[in-house]
Design goal:
Strand order of the largest sheet: 8-5-3-2-12-11-10-9
Number of strands: 12
CATH topology: TIM Barrel
Largest sheet: 8 strands, parallel
Strand content: 5-15%
Number of domains: 1
Distance between the termini: 32 Å
Structural class: alpha/beta
């Protein structure tokens, strides 16, 4: 067993190879520049296996690494069998059109269920909610967005954040300032959004302007907005410092989007990408699905975040209330949220997700 090492959180969040840690994983996770781990579907086999994996990850470092997942609901939900199937956020947006109070209640229930199940499994937070608007143009976003109306997105996201907070889990808004208008997918292309700042302020930026005090984290988009800067938002000091920090007054963590995505290649190799993101104002950079890139970045030794960034990162830790899923499933608030989420929402109930599992 690797002995715990007392280290501050480094600026790199990376992934691991499978459902159990390898020696190569352990080497990367105990590197001083590592600060977090993001888990994917390949890292999941069962609730018990996931809990064992997160326990081992936590045992490697003191204080432990942050553990995260993209667990939004719909097509972006990493843990499925044994966990509640959360509907796509567009399902809540459709309900908003007919019954706003019901949509708010179900969004809060979704947040509580997501947060309760993740934290009971040893995961600190999900990269959620998606704050992008659905302009009907982006296949990368699509039904991951709540709605096309910034007011609806703001209200539903606020309710989901309420649910996350009730279960002690922080919220991360993405993809700042907005990924929904472009047709290109930043995983495979470099999207360019021609709109100016005033157009963005009237639409995509509304949720950030309204919700900034309640977001512990923000993830910027690998999208270029040439009217503001020639660099993608995640590499742009104009966006991250000028707009997000200074104009909006945001004081939480800024996570880069995955630096292995094709859109990030505009900044150069992985070391240049990380340096550009950190210089622009990111506190932590993600490198996913490319262990060789993660190793190259760690060997370069990116600078550790300062005291302010360390304090911001510490806020991302889940305030875990339940030892495991079995303990969670006796909790009245959780059971009530399951009932709320499952009622009149066939996308949630049809998979058997919004049900009580022993």
């Amino acid at each position: 067993m690797v002995q715990p090492v007392l280290l501050p959180l480094g600026p790199v969040m990376l992934d691991v190879e499978g459902s159990e840690l390898t020696d190569a994983d352990r080497s990367r996770l105990t590197h001083p520049a590592t600060g977090g781990v993001i888990l994917f579907a390949r890292n999941y086999a069962s609730p018990g296996q996931l809990a064992a994996l997160t326990r081992e990850i936590r045992s490697l470092r003191t204080p432990p690494l942050l553990i995260a997942a993209d667990h939004e609901g719909g097509r972006v939900q990493r843990f499925r069998d044994g966990y509640t199937r959360i509907p796509a956020m567009a399902v809540l947006g459709a309900l908003w059109n007919t019954d706003r109070q019901a949509a708010r209640r179900k969004a809060e229930a979704a947040g509580l269920v997501i947060a309760s199940e993740l934290s009971a499994s040893g995961v600190d937070f999900s990269f959620a909610p998606v704050l992008d608007l659905d302009f009907g143009r982006s296949s990368a976003i699509g039904d991951r967005a709540f709605h096309s109306d910034p007011e609806a997105v703001t209200e539903l996201a606020a309710s989901l954040i309420d649910g996350l907070a009730r279960a002690g889990v922080a919220a991360v808004g993405k993809h700042f300032p907005g990924h929904g208008y472009v047709t290109e997918d930043s995983h495979s292309d470099l999207p360019v959004d021609p709109r100016g700042l005033e157009q963005l302020r009237a639409a995509d930026l509304v949720p950030y302007l309204r919700l900034a005090p309640r977001l512990a984290g923000v993830m910027p988009a690998h999208v270029v907005y040439p009217a503001i800067d020639s660099a993608p938002a995640g590499f742009s000091r104009a966006w991250l410092h000028g707009v997000l920090r200074q104009q909006i007054g945001y004081d939480g963590v800024i996570f880069s989007d995955d630096l292995s995505m094709e859109a990030a290649a505009i900044a150069g190799d992985v070391i240049a990408r990380a340096e550009a993101a950190l210089a622009a104002g990111c506190d932590m950079v993600l490198v996913c699905n490319r262990p060789q890139l993660a190793s190259a970045l760690l060997s370069h030794g990116p600078r550790l975040p300062g005291e302010k960034a360390q304090a911001r990162l510490a806020r991302m830790r889940a305030k875990t209330q339940f030892a495991d899923l079995d303990a969670l499933r006796t909790d009245a608030h959780y059971l009530a949220a399951l009932d709320e989420l499952g009622s009149a929402m066939p996308d949630a109930a049809s998979s058997g997700g919004a049900s009580r599992r022993g």
